[in-house]
Amino acid sequence: MAMKIRLARGGSKKRPHYSIVAADSRSPRDGRFIEKLGTYDPLLAKDNENRVKLDLDRAKYWLDQGAQATDRVARFLEAAGVSEKKTRANLKQGEPGKAAVARAKEKADKAAKAAEAPAAE
């Protein structure tokens, strides 16, 4: 059975509240889980100690049993010192989109024409 440590969403519309659970990877996001490991409240301030509550001993147990943490839960575990920090690379984050590239090219062409026009006179 493939195990995941992941978030299960609760709360009402536009007021999310998540449970951190150990669940079978085939079960639905908010469906059946094996054990509740903690909670996550994204509406609280980042420096609030109640934002993420996690039972670290049980999380270590499930990781030792072969459970895979999702990206968000892995970040919580890294912050708590349970797992080592992974290197992440968002290679496309700094690149401009197609429209921005086209606008920059047009602007450069206009600037080149404007530089040539006074030189011709």
Automatic annotation (TrEMBL):
Residues 88-121 are annotated as: Disordered. The keyword Ribosomal protein applies. One of its GO terms (molecular function) is structural constituent of ribosome. Keywords: Ribonucleoprotein, Ribosomal protein. GO terms for cellular component: cytoplasm; small ribosomal subunit. The keyword Zinc does not apply. One of its GO terms (biological process) is translation. InterPro entries: Ribosomal_bS16, Ribosomal_bS16_dom_sf. Residues 103-113 have a biased composition (Basic and acidic residues). It comes from the Bacteria. NCBIfam families: S16. PANTHER family: 30S RIBOSOMAL PROTEIN S16, SMALL RIBOSOMAL SUBUNIT PROTEIN BS16M. Belongs to the bacterial ribosomal protein bS16 family. This is Small ribosomal subunit protein bS16.
